[in-house]
Amino acid sequence: MSRVVQWNALDDAARREMLQRPAQKVGADTATTVASLLDQVRNEGDVALRRLVAEFDGVTLERFEVSESEFEAATACLASSLQGAIVEAAGRIEHFHRAGMGAVHVVQTAPGVTCERMQRPIGRVGLYVPAGSAPLPSTALMLAVPARLAGCRDVVLCTPPRRDGSADPAVLFAAAHCGVRRVFKLGGAQAIGAMAFGSASVPACDKLFGPGNSYVTEAKRQVAARDDGAAIDMPAGPSEVLVIADGGANPVFVAADLLSQAEHGPDSQVILLSDDDGLLARVEIEIARQLVDLPRASIAAQALAASRLIRVGSIEQAFEVSNDYAPEHLILALREPRAWLPRVRAAGSVFLGDWTPEALGDYCSGTNHVLPTGGAARWCSGLSVASFQTSITVQEAEPHGLGAIGPCAMELAAAEGLDAHRLAVSRRLEAMA
Ligand SMILES: NC(=O)c1ccc[n+]([C@@H]2O[C@H](COP(=O)([O-])OP(=O)(O)OC[C@H]3O[C@@H](n4cnc5c(N)ncnc54)[C@H](O)[C@@H]3O)[C@@H](O)[C@H]2O)c1
Ligand SMILES: N[C@H](CO)Cc1c[nH]c[nH+]1
Ligand SMILES: [Zn+2]
């Protein structure tokens, strides 16, 4: 039986239900578990970390930090073709991110009054590279390249250990290639707690970055809300993709793109919107056909249970639905996709046309794959160099500049009843007279 849903036959409540993310349905339990894990790390430091690594990663670790010899062993065992791909991807990610770095903005807002904005690196940053169901060396690049370009002084990276107590060699190679030498074999909420609060082994960081499963994402949310925690980049949880396809789209490609995000985890969400019944039917058949050949078929199948194949009345309506949902990834499998781009109001990253699979952005087109999920694309952007910097404003008034804009400040100060403010200006004007 077809799973295609007619959007125009649904009432508002059914539409909301249709677009609810699987990750949002497990909220309360996850929050309680994570709060307890963070408290343990906060109160007991390394002792709690050792216990939680044993519990969740199934390995006993005396030391969490990766040693120099472990870095060397990782490089030695890594195929040269994979080393080459990591270096190649890093180069393009650097190219794109460097181009987006803040230009110097100096503005004369009045004669004799100069305002500017300057960027400074955040001192100590903590990067999280997932490795629960699959280690993601590409994520190490997406985090470490902009951190290095920003000029961050101390960069700490956590990634879950493997069962044999080692860290994934490709993650280590990618980290080292980007100059990150302080890597800790810690995963999940406990890694986030360690980087937020610090422990005997792990330095406390000012801001934490990186994606992860529901536990990691919830832990980031909780440490960001605590006075003794750390700032965070964004909610970057379980992967999502929304495809808008017209009747001319290739169903094999569309199905492949949907499966590529479904295989990330059981709580990934994949959505297809189309105004064409034939395309929807063909994609549904293709998904079933391609799924059986995937090594991660059972994970993808769980995610597909919460997938949505939706028949919309028009492509215009598809954009309305997509903007409300605010997907992490948006694929426009449309004829003349660029012409539709102005309709996009909320999305983490957009993939134009039939020849831009989302996997390119995941790995090596140059854009960043750490992107907002859970609808956060309505109000926040994916990672960039600016995420690793603060922006400090500077102003300078010459005497004639103070003369030009001082009366404005005095008028507003008087209106607010803040006389000391008014006097800070008027005393200078008097001194100039
Ligand atoms: N939004 C983005 O930019 C982006 C980018 C890449 C990956 N992702 C997402 O990152 C996620 C990676 O997840 P993952 O699981 O593979 O790796 P992960 O490293 O995020 O999580 C693994 C850790 O989860 C913890 N954990 C597992 N089960 C637990 C439980 N029952 N209770 C408490 N803690 C538990 C363990 O400590 C383990 O080390 C995927 O959902 C993927 O879609 C998102
Ligand atoms: N699609 C993920 C972001 O949601 C990123 C990724 C890493 N490796 C493969 N894919
Ligand atoms: Zn992916």
- What is the fold named in CATH at topology level of the largest domain? Rossmann fold
- The poorly predicted ranges are none
Q: For the record, what is the CATH homologous superfamily label of the largest domain?
A: Nitrogenase molybdenum iron protein domain
* Secondary structure: helix percent: 40-55%
Q: Give the strand order, joined by hyphens, for the main sheet.
A: 1-11-10-9-12-13
The mean pLDDT is 96
Could you tell me which ligands this complex binds, including any ions or cofactors? Answer: nicotinamide-adenine-dinucleotide, L-histidinol, zinc ion
Task: Find the structural class using helix and strand composition.
Answer: alpha/beta
Count of separate structural domains:
3
**What is the total tally of β strands?**
14
Which value, in Å, is the CA radius of gyration? Answer: 25 Å
Q: In the CATH classification, which architecture of the largest domain applies?
A: 3-Layer(aba) Sandwich
Strand content bin: 15-25%
**Gross geometry:** globular
Binding site for substrate: 239, 261, 264, 329, 362, 416, 421
EC number: 1.1.1.23
Active site: 328-329
Binding site for NAD(+): 128, 190, 213
